[in-house]
Amino acid sequence: MARIAYDGKDAAAFETSRHLSDHGLAAWRAAVDRHLRTGPHDRLLDLGAGTGMWARAFTTWYPAMEVIAVEPAAAMRARCRHPGVLPGDAADIPLDDDHVDAAWLSTIIHHVPDLTAAARELRRVLRPGGQVLIRSAFPGRHEAIALFRFFPEAVRVLDTFPTVEEVEAAFATVGMSTIAFEPVPQITGPSLRELTANLRREAHTPLQLITDAEYAAGLARLHRACETEDGPVIDTLDLLVLR
Question: I want to staple 13 with a disulfide (CB 3.0 to 4.6 A). Which of 37, 186, 203, 204 is the partner?
């Protein structure tokens, strides 16, 4: 079971505040290009597709690739912008064996209760030599993420997420190992003021799992910073690639 049982309000908040602009996606396109091996008629699984931002991005980036979106939350599927999104999760992927060439998991690894079972299931649906690309914030690697700067109490939630080493150990049980690990700086928003205006607590697991008082204190920090800080908000998340 995911840490958050996403309902309609959560899904709407996610769609409103978590989708990146083309500028924000550019660094991820470059990172994916460095590591993803693609060819004609390849298939990519977007596991935990949410409201479909990444599935649509991959469809745009690689027109010859078939992108299959799988999302466990009905509320997210109802808002998914990618056609034909399927119900399913990391423990039960609704695809045949050896069906996809790569799998993309964006900010969902902390929702997976059994990493080893997920690794087995991903290995099952991947063709030989297939890759798993995991985009995430990992424990101990939060310093370049604005959310944790203004809501430092949320670091204790991040510290309960799987570490890089734990993810690697789970995939090692199915014979997969890390082939790349890199930080990717993204433009999360054009300004801190706009980011604050669009912030929705329901869209961020760490914010949902802190207290109301801690959330209010973080908002106050954000509003004070908006008075003096200008320029785009750049966050750095990690890309872990296994094969």
Answer: 203
Q: Are strands 233-242 and 126-136 parallel, antiparallel or unpaired?
A: antiparallel
Contact 68, 94 (CB under 8 A): no
Distance of CA 140 to the CA centre of its chain: 17
**Neighbour-count burial of 2, counting CB atoms closer than 10 A to its CB (0-12 exposed, 13-18 middle, 19+ buried):** middle
Q: How many residues does the chain have?
A: 243
Q: What is the pTM of this model?
A: 0.95
d(CA 191, CA 210): 25
Q: How far apart are CA 126 and CA 86, in angstroms?
A: 17
The full set of domains in the chain, from first to last, is 8-143+156-187+235-242 (3.40.50.150)
* pLDDT tens digits, one per residue of 162-216: 999 999 999 999 999 999 999 999 999 999 999 999 999 999 999 999 999 999 9
